[in-house]
Amino acid sequence: MVRQERKDAMSIAWTSRYALRTKNIKSSAIRELLKITQRPEVISFAGGLPANDVFPIERFEETCKKVLEQNAVMALQYGETEGYKPLRDMIASRIARYGIKAQAENVLITTGSQQALDLIGKLLINSGDRVLVEAPTYLGALQAFNAYGAEYLSVPCDEEGLRTDLLEASLRFGPKFMYVLPNFQNPAGTTLSEDRRHTLVSLANKYGIPIVEDDPYGQLRYEGEHLPSLVVLDRENLPHDDGYTLGNVIYLSTFSKTLAPGLRLGWIVAPPEVIAKLVQLKQGADLHTSTFAQVVAYEVARDNFLDEHVRKLRDIYRERRDVMLAALAQYFPSQVRWTRPKGGLFLWVSLPEGMDANYLFREALKHNVAFVPGNSFFAASDQTQDGRRHLRLNFSHARPDEIREGIRRLSIAEKTQLEQLRSVRRT
Amino acid sequence: MVRQERKDAMSIAWTSRYALRTKNIKSSAIRELLKITQRPEVISFAGGLPANDVFPIERFEETCKKVLEQNAVMALQYGETEGYKPLRDMIASRIARYGIKAQAENVLITTGSQQALDLIGKLLINSGDRVLVEAPTYLGALQAFNAYGAEYLSVPCDEEGLRTDLLEASLRFGPKFMYVLPNFQNPAGTTLSEDRRHTLVSLANKYGIPIVEDDPYGQLRYEGEHLPSLVVLDRENLPHDDGYTLGNVIYLSTFSKTLAPGLRLGWIVAPPEVIAKLVQLKQGADLHTSTFAQVVAYEVARDNFLDEHVRKLRDIYRERRDVMLAALAQYFPSQVRWTRPKGGLFLWVSLPEGMDANYLFREALKHNVAFVPGNSFFAASDQTQDGRRHLRLNFSHARPDEIREGIRRLSIAEKTQLEQLRSVRRT
Description:
The structure is a homodimer. Chain A is globular and about 70 Å long. Chain A has helices at residues 29-36, 57-70, 72-76, 85-96, 112-124, 139-146, 167-171, 194-207, 230-236, 272-286, 291-301, 305-331, 357-366, 400-426; strands spanning 43-44, 107-110, 130-135, 151-158, 161-162, 177-180, 211-214, 249-254, 266-269, 337-338, 346-350, 369-370, 372-373, 390-394. The first copy, chain A, has an eight-stranded mixed β-sheet with strand order 2-9-8-7-6-3-4-5, with helices on both faces. The longest helix of chain A has 27 residues, at 305-331. Helix content of chain A is 41%, strand content 13%. The first copy, chain A, contains 14 helices and 14 strands. By secondary structure, chain A is α/β, with parallel strands linked by helices.
């Protein structure tokens, strides 16, 4: 037996043991900001949080009681990696309304759609592979893909979403896949037009490049008609259509924006052979998503409850969006521009040239209002866009009166910064 | 706009897009077996499942009601990546009883301890790095580490656990870290002796190799005294001990075996700088573990409920272990050997030379009894051990009468195979 003298031990220098991939990983700006902005006096437009006052608490209470009386062992025991079968059936039948012909075998339940992004990165990305993303794009996706050593090809967006006229040049660089948010994009709030959707799936097909379609907000449309999912358009191009066994599109969604993010429930819809491989990866990642959360969510959502609840959310969030748009028009000068989202949780503000949203953030905090500066939403390798001139505003979490007051405070911070900028230019 | 003619599209060959790491990934034999063995007529010793009849269902019911009445918004909303603070405090104070001086800043809540293994692989393993593991070891760890391209150094175990007398030779190959299960090991059921624990931490210190100590079953001890954790022994060696900021050991545990696996709640205990990096990786992996599951688990466990519940579990599982040991002695011939675990959920059976647990598995299924063949528990690169002669039996899930009957059936399958083997040898 080797037993050394005590008190001579050295501690390991842990950082020197970290894998190379950790060099690409920074903490999410948003999550660090959320901590700062939890002070009660701060009006926060920073997070992507559902409103605190919309959770269907009574329904959860009845449901938990029912589940624990009727189905407790199932809900508390280990479950299948694929997910709770009735929930997968429900998801398949819900998306069928939008023309996506899926069955349970096309659905994998994930621990929030953040895990869906992580598993897709694990499945597809070799270190150095390029992922084609929108500029700006969802920072959680960048964070998930960075862990697998992704490089990026960024394609700009405008009011109609991804600039598909600029897409082909980037596709010729050979991205491993494209990651797009067609509906009420995070962060920009824009929606990809129907024409561009057709162009996107045609180009994906022409170059043989898969699409990952992330759709967390699709149900939260406040005006206009639902536009067809990329899955649906892609399948229209197929020579035959015998169920969802083929196709170039993986589709993601979640209950985080419609039911409750605290459940951590998302899903991946894909051809069964892709699901089978993702199941193997998920086994190693967390065995399966909480059975308790899955059974409760299924029982809460069933019997049209989720549809009724989503209708209520649409009314509440539509009003908040309108209040924010009106307050922006009232308080902000004409040099500041913003998107007018038809749904979702966010809008995207563009500041006049020379302004910097990171400085504005610090100034805004002095006035007890918070948002996320735009540079977090651009891939680090993307030199074409100036993220610093942009900011993301969430309109779902704060109440209407808070939204008005928050935008007023933000406009004061903006004017302060603008004056400082002018005085610097004068000197 | 590019809109191609319809019906000319080709589907992507998805498998050709998969990342290199997926070549190392197979589905867990256990999870596939669990599906086969879910037929009600099968007595299964295969899974690592808690008994169905021990879940504290009433306590869960009261707790869900209380949480949703008093704390619903917190439980349903997004939470911090680190985990629910009261739960982290509780875990820190629980492990303090065993001499591990941790605070909340040392604790990261994970989506089951499977995610702890995945995050540790993500943090530490570069493709081709060697991980030192016990032979046999927990197959879920191999599965998690395989996704990061781990190679393995396997060190054999005996009745006293890891053969620390054989450890130094392997340490000189420079493993990135060691992964060990000191208490009631999965699959072998053995416990690392106190002398060997001292040797292990001393050698880890001598070579500067970190230890990942996985302890899912530590509380489920049915006889004898608790042995000191590797964290504690490692810290005794430190020249000064001002809180858990240094040290060579990362410690893992879970509520899956003491409360309910369906919650998917595990944790990592480590120096704060390691926790901070793991938090960044977890942000990209699933943002955070279900707040609902965390708040419910905290409220279920508090006020000594968990301790009382664990005492009950010990009595139930001790009886089942004793029934299985007695049935093995009654039904099996003397050439078959097995371990006598002092705790946990498993024992490990060694068959006579020439027998193959994979054949026995097929024969056993004909008799409606199931287990996990041993070869799943050895790293693929490990040529030193013959996993085929071993099988893992779980004694926590089946009831005592089922255990007796299952072992009787298994002995018939074993005798059938032994006779076939003899007749082959005769010819």
